[in-house]
Here is the input.
Amino acid sequence: MNKEKGLGVVETKYFTFAKGKDKLLLESSQSLGPITLAYETYGSLNDQKSNAILVGHALSGDAHAAGFKDGDKKPGWWDSMIGPGKAFDTDKYFVICSNVIGGCKGSTGPSSINPETNEPYALNFPIITISDMVRAQKCLIDSLGIKKLLCVSGGSMGGMQALAWVALFPEAVGSSIPIATTWKHSPQQIAFDEVGRQAVMADPSWKNGNYYGGGLPQRGLAVARMIGHITYMSDESMEEKFSRKLKESNYTFTFKTDFEVEGYLRYRGDSFVKRFDANSYLYITKAMDYFDLSAGKLITQGQKIDTRFLVIAFQSDWLYPPYQSREIIHFLKMCHVDATYCEIQSSYGHDAFLLEVPEQTHLIKHFLKTTFESIS
Here is the structure.
């Protein structure tokens, strides 16, 4: 039964590690430390510590996945999926979400203070990858005394993390639910990210990343977000939402916002710069572009793993089109891995993983139930 009660007010916690000489070795061969991860938990960890689920966030997400923080009018970004009776049922499971390294919502990133200079890292922050994000998450999970996660899940970049966990720590992952994602960034996906980065770096206020304490590169970041947001929707959803509706009754014959879609994109861009750091945008998009678990890097030849997979894609998603999810499934089947593929019919495009709640809930609830029963 789907209970409509929510999680109420939740608390963001902080875990600091990689102190002193014990820095985290990154994929680039550089090291980083100390590192702080902001994270939230929902539900209770059972005595066997066997009911833990890690949820990874997308590019612009953070640790606040569900419930309300004091003063917030809106709940966390996946509140429709996490909570009592929901897909990730907090009456049964202990759900964890952390802000990735490189982020700007409490975790160590380019806007954090570099202890060696007492100034923000800016571009002195090392380049990171999805694997680095996951290795940092593993330190958090270890600190909670959890030896094996029941599941790792997430949409978009969160799905990349769900795959990277299996590639790096297969013995620590009971199941993986990558949603609306890929196992390698395509040239088109890299191209969109690069245009966004160039928009940020072209802003005169960017100042080679050294804008902290001064004017922010707001226009550049806003344009980057506008470009990105177009890719999150579909042609059908944009037609349904906007069509050619005008903000006024007639054309202005100026470069003002004649069309509702123009005003919507400007609103999205202007809202984004109030909550996100431009340098974090550069670092995280670069990490996504470096992501590549194809050609046997997800599972090596001859490797036997017990991790179960539920791969979910959306028919109208053209940013991470379904064929990329089918590539993952084909490879998993070739490796004799327990893997299920579901393609949901939706007009919402890439944003469907945030909006198509009933369909995902049905799939995920059943999958988690059978996974939990198989290990209990």
In short: The longest helix spans residues 357-375. Residues 100 and 133 are 6 Å apart (CA to CA). The longest strand covers residues 35-42. The chain has two domains: 13-185+292-375, 189-287.
